[in-house]
Amino acid sequence: MRVDLGYVPLTDAAPVLAAAELGFARDEGIDLVLTPEPSWATLRDRLALGHLDAAHMLAPLALATRLGLSGPRADLVAPMALNLNGNAITLSLPLWEAMAPETDDLDTVATAFARIARDRAGQGRPLTLATVHPFSCHSYQLRIFAERGGLDLAQAVRIVVVPPPQTVEAVASGEIDGVCVGAPWNSIAVAAGLGRIAALGCAIVPDCPEKVLAIHASQIEALAPLVEAVQRAGIWCADPANVGELAELLSERGGLGPDTDLIRRSLTGHLVMDSAGRRHTDPDYLRLGADVHRPRPEHGLWLAEQMAASGQIADAAGIAAACHAFYRTDLLKA
């Protein structure tokens, strides 16, 4: 059975890449054909319109598509999560130098950011920050980060959408002053001498629901072997013994660039934070594996709360039932 699956080049696409390239899908009788997509909007539309059978997808975007809040409406469900966490906020070097936070404590950094953002807004030249899509945990983490510094992000900062693979170029050109994006693009910006990782997503929102395997509800039974294959692949990806091979796979097949050491660090949470080589380790930076695959309806409820807090829906209670239906808990094997 041929299955066409779309993904955006990110470290957390590892389970679907491993499923296709290392034989997990083939073992389940699936010819898994992967398609790298240039943006989340393109991936959303191609999945919703039936050009793709499944996708590595932002959890809030998949839910928003189900609700008819973003692009063509489609009855999408998530039979498994692909990862938790994986994002970070990277700020341009000029912005970081202007902030000059006294410590790397999250609240201290957020307060320093808020000060500069208010000053720039008052001067009529607001900061520009990028997110990867309005319906993304990246957008919610940016808002929560700003709130920790006492800043209403929507009132003081210009927010634009930049697809993950284009974020480094956008920082380099000065188009944006910072971005919340997934691995490894923060580290690539640092390695290029363009930015400073200011805050890890896992510190802003621990165990943040990031990507899911999204499929049409009508295909749930037919694609059960795909779920099995991706689950097995995800467990393989989480094994520390496989980090080197996985980093090479992501580099050669995943579109993440030639620096396998950088990719390896994004898989293990051993991060270089700035061009001076300052290091920080957080094993929860990107979580893969069996303990994160289980779909959790409570994640859908949290996403609904973030949509409401961001003004994307009127209230979270109104979509609680849809959130429960979105995360299908009956297909993943124990």
TrEMBL record:
InterPro entries cross-referenced by the UniProt entry: NrtA/CpmA_ABC-bd_dom
Gene3D superfamilies: Periplasmic binding protein-like II (3.40.190.10)
Predominant location category: membrane
Keyword Membrane assigned: yes
Swiss-Prot/TrEMBL keywords: Cell inner membrane, Cell membrane, Membrane, Transport
Subcellular location: Endomembrane system
Pfam families assigned to the protein according to its UniProt record, in alphabetical order: NMT1_2
Descriptive protein name: Nitrate/nitrite binding protein NrtA
Organism per entry: Methylobacterium thuringiense
Gene field: nrtA_1
